[in-house]
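Why does residue order matter? Because the sequence determines the fold. Keep that principle in mind as you read this record.
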Amino acid sequence: MGLDMYLTASANMLDSEGVEIEGLDAGGMEIAAVEYRAGYWRKANAVHGWFVQHVQGGEDNCRPYEVERKQLEQLRDLCAYILKDKDTAGLPPTAGFFFGAAEIDDWYWEDLRLTVNICNNALGLADSGRHYWTFNYQSSW
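Structure:
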């Protein structure tokens, strides 16, 4: 039990003609989107707090929320800044039910490094003439 956090990336099809997924037969239905897990965090409460405030409008309710590329860039840049300058004021730990430690410790710094990597990977996904990418954040606790 505890705070689990997921970023999903969905390739939304503009043109699904000829697109097949090996081993998956949907009886002639067209593929509308393919969803990937772009990121997973465990008890990264400071990062979760950022999503709650900047993506979820302050609502911490375990529902999926769409995340814009601009927001992923802001989170990545904030984490990179904090890792470089050690100024944690912009991303404080968030207390909550089974959210993990509310201190700046080794786990905090590792969560920031992981977040930079997750955001870079997601932001590296490029739209094409056949699909466009969307992102969603959801937590579970």
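The first helix runs from residue 45 to 54.
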